[in-house]
């Protein structure tokens, strides 16, 4: 029993810093998105945020890319998908850049991966006759963090 208790304490001591870091990361991201939603007079819908980690600023440390949606701006039925990047510093995540990446009557966008400091996305754009409901043109795009800007390169 004593060995089991020691093993459990060892496992908890190894995983606790990771759990604390993830909680702190989420708090930074949540605060940033909540402030933006308030400025726009909208809100972030539940369960549509996409988050992925990978090195985005060539420092060998995992940064965080977040694709999130703000909807209902000013009481409308509009929505905008934003891409935000947070770079990891010694003190934790720090906001680096943000850009609108999709939304109603523009395109739908899904974050798929980070490779070689580039974020990759699947897109679905609007064809003539799609209306505002249902985009139908499949595509791909990528964004790269360049300084404090996100630069898109359509593929």
Structure description:
The chain is of the alpha+beta class and 155 residues long. The protein has one domain (2-154). Helix content is 25%, strand content 45%. It contains 1 helix and 8 strands; from the N terminus they run H-E-E-E-E-E-E-E-E. It has a 4-stranded antiparallel beta sheet with strand order 1-2-3-4, covered by helices on one side. The longest helix has 39 residues, at 2-40. The protein is globular, with a radius of gyration of 19 Å. The N and C termini lie far apart (58 Å).
Whole-number mean pLDDT: 87
Q: What does the overall shape look like?
A: globular
Q: Could you list the spans in which at least 5 consecutive residues all have pLDDT below 50?
A: 15-20
What composes the largest sheet? 4 strands, antiparallel
Radius of gyration: 19 Å
Record the strand order, biggest sheet.
1-2-3-4
Alpha-carbon distance between the two ends: 58 Å
Q: Indicate the structural class.
A: alpha+beta
Count of DSSP-assigned helices: 1
| Helix content range | 25-40%
What order do the helices and strands follow? HEEEEEEEE
Our estimate of the beta-strand percent is over 45%
Count of separate structural domains: 1
Q: Based on DSSP secondary structure assignment, what is the total number of beta strands?
A: 8
